[in-house]
Design a protein that fits this description.
The complex is a heterodimer of chains A (204) and B (76). Helix content of chain A is 67%, strand content 0%. By secondary structure, chain A is mainly α. Chain A has 3 domains: 48 residues, no CATH class; 64 residues; 39 residues, no CATH class. In chain A, helix 1 packs across helix 2. Chain B has one domain: Winged helix-like DNA-binding domain superfamily/Winged helix DNA-binding domain (Arc Repressor Mutant, subunit A), CATH 1.10.10. In chain B, helix 2 packs across helix 4. Chain B is elongated. The mean pLDDT of chain B is 86. Classes of the chains: A mainly alpha (204), B mainly alpha (76). Chains A and B meet through helix 1 and helix 3 of A and helix 1, helix 2 and helix 4 of B.
């Protein structure tokens, strides 16, 4: 058997098995193999090896490990986003705490200031009434002169007003007043009489 | 399994054993280049990238491997 000298055709034989040749290359290889016993033998060997498929390519673990990027080069790229996320969550939580806490403090201060204003108003009112130098106050002051004067100007006759006017009455007037007071009812006249309905059962 | 099926299986096992022995006769680099070229159908350029060598060196390894395997199977 003569040894084939066409190395190009020999190198294309595996591609012929896998159908990886162009149409022109396939025609050229087929034409050569048809007349070359060495290439026919090579093609038979290749078919046998291909169909056997008993050997898995050895894996050079050391070379694969060398191709892996250094560990330190990968870790920062992975950890940086995680730290950024944690930091953003912390910032968000802090802001939320400030907003909620500040709002509650403001509400508390507003409530306390409102009560102080009411108290202050209540405290200032007697001061204005006692001084009497500014605008006249309508708050009654317990002075004897006003106590006597107000019933005189009041348009409504009242028992207290009558009692206040009793100082100016004569003895006969006082006796008449006492007699009138004896006739006063214990209950006001406008009090409605109690109505008690008794069901006798005749309506049934 | 039929009689013909059992015979085919036996022939296949024998062929696999012969090919395994022929590949064991190769150097590690020759075996890797040869199997990548024949069984996986990779080009010489791809094989060179896989094995970390040049395309010309992959061609040389392939030629040496097929000559060794052919002689081994011929002598069997």
């Amino acid at each position: 058997m003569n040894k084939c000298t066409d190395s190009d055709i020999q190198e294309l034989l595996p591609d012929l098995l896998h159908g990886a040749l162009t149409e022109a290359e396939k025609v050229r290889v087929d034409a050569h193999v048809a007349t070359c016993e060495s290439c026919q033998e090579d093609l038979d060997v290749l078919r046998t090896v291909k169909s056997a498929a008993v050997f898995a390519p050895s894996i050079d673990v050391d070379r694969v490990v060398r191709q892996i990027p250094p560990y330190r080069a990968i870790v920062p790229a992975v950890e940086a986003p995680a730290r950024a996320r944690v930091a953003s969550w912390l910032v968000a939580a802090t802001l939320a705490l400030f907003v909620v806490g500040g709002g509650s403090v403001l509400m508390t201060r507003q409530n306390s200031s409102g009560t102080s204003v009411v108290d202050g108003g209540a405290k200032t009112t007697p001061k204005i009434a006692t001084t009497g130098t500014a605008a006249p106050s309508r708050v009654p002051v317990a002075t004897p002169s006003q106590t006597i004067a107000e019933p005189a100007t009041s348009p409504h006759p009242h028992a207290l007003a009558l009692a206040a006017e009793a100082d100016g009455l004569s003895d006969g007037g006082l006796v008449q007043l006492m007699n009138d007071m004896d006739t006063f009812d214990a209950l006001p006249g406008s009090e409605p009489d109690p109505v008690i309905s008794v069901d006798s059962g005749d309506s049934l | 399994m039929s009689e013909y099926g059992a015979l085919d299986s036996l022939i296949a096992e024998e062929a696999q054993e012969r090919v395994r022995k022929s590949l064991d006769a190769l150097s590690p680099t020759q075996r890797e280049v040869f199997t990548l070229r024949v069984q996986q159908g990779l080009s010489y350029k791809e094989i060179a990238e896989v094995v970390g060598s040049t395309e010309g060196a992959a061609r040389v390894h392939y030629h040496n491997a097929i000559q060794t395997v052919k002689e081994f199977l011929r002598d069997e």
